Amino acid sequence: MSSTAIPTDNGREIPGLADLARTATRLHPRPGVPTVRDSHLGGPLLWPTDEPWPHCDQPHPSKDQGPLLAAAQFFVRDLPNLPFPDGTDLLQVLWCPCEHDAAHAFGPAVRLVWRRSEDVNDVLDEPPHPTTAEDEFSPTPCLLSPCEVVEYPDVREIPDEIKSTLSFVDEDGFFDEDSDTYNNWPTVTLGSKLGGWAYFWQSDPWQLDCHDCGTPLRLLLSFHTHEHQDDRCSCKQPQRNSVGWRFGRDGALNIFACTQDVTHTIKPHID
Predict the structure, then answer these.
(1) CB-based contact 254:198 (threshold 8 Å)
(2) Cα gap 264→122, rounded to integer Å
(3) Measured between alpha carbons, how far is 4 from 180 in angstroms, rounded to an integer?
(4) Which of 60, 133, 168, 197 is surrounded by the most beta carbons within 10 Å?
(5) How far apart are CA 92 and CA 110, in angstroms?
């Protein structure tokens, strides 16, 4: 796992900041031919023949609320940092590949399925395919080369009691954007990942509370339009847009989940 230096304020260690470190698993997708037994983006799902394939249940302009598209699946053996509910070892991500006018999403309607893989005996060979699918939401099948990195939050997500102690924050909570300390604050990972912190560049982190219980939400998955090569890890990322999808203005589809119960209502947010 690659570590990131804890941000300082002009060399001063910031009390409480170390506790906000999170481990993110970068996915590093590469085009390939995944099977139902692989963790992947855009490949076939380990789906039982006796379980109905899910259809879109949200309104969108086409009025064709057809079958969902398989977007990803992750096995615990490959991605152990995912918060799998007890008795499950597989997370499957599906979505309706059409534009939806959902609050803060304006993209595909996302559904998560947590299951126990050993319960799937007969696998569905040919799931129904959406009759209407926008190219930007239809991924190219990719295999994964995961690695772990440590992230710290964007300064906008730091708790007020810590933020108020920073030299580049005034008494009204505004940032001095000319400050070297502000400009040198480490950004979060720009690339598809599990966990860690979300990258906000078109909006601000707000209304991140669970719809079902009011508990704070936390980033579960982040699917990025582009996979960036940076110094967070030594992994090579040969293709910048290997998956072929596109979210918003070349941004990311972030999926937030409840920290109390990951099966509660999720919050997709495109930024």
Answers:
(1) yes
(2) 28
(3) 18
(4) 197
(5) 11
DSSP-derived secondary structure letter, 256: E
Give the integer Cα–Cα distance in Å for 239 and 236: 9
Write the DSSP symbol of residue 155: G
CA distance 4 to 233: 10
Convert the pLDDT of each residue in 122-181 to its tens digit. Answer: 999 999 988 777 888 999 999 999 999 999 998 888 999 999 999 999 988 889 989 988
Residue 86 tokens read as 């007890």
Residue 49: C-alpha distances to residues 95, 119, 143 (Å)? 19, 12, 24
CB 198 within 8 A of CB 271: yes
| Amino acid in the structure at residue 59 | P
- pTM of structure: 0.93
Residue 30's closest CA among 138, 194, 137, 140? 140
**In this predicted model, what pLDDT tens digit does every residue of 253-267 receive, in sequence order?**
999 999 999 999 999
- The average pLDDT across 240-262 equals 93
What single-letter amino acid sits at 263?
Answer: T
State how far the Cα of 217 lies from the Cα of 261, in Å rounded to an integer.
Answer: 10
Beta-strand relationship, 69-75 and 40-41: antiparallel
Task: Round the CA-based radius of gyration of the chain to a whole number and report it.
Answer: 19
Best CA proximity match to 250, nearest among 217, 211, 223? 223
- Residue 98 in tokens: 């059409």
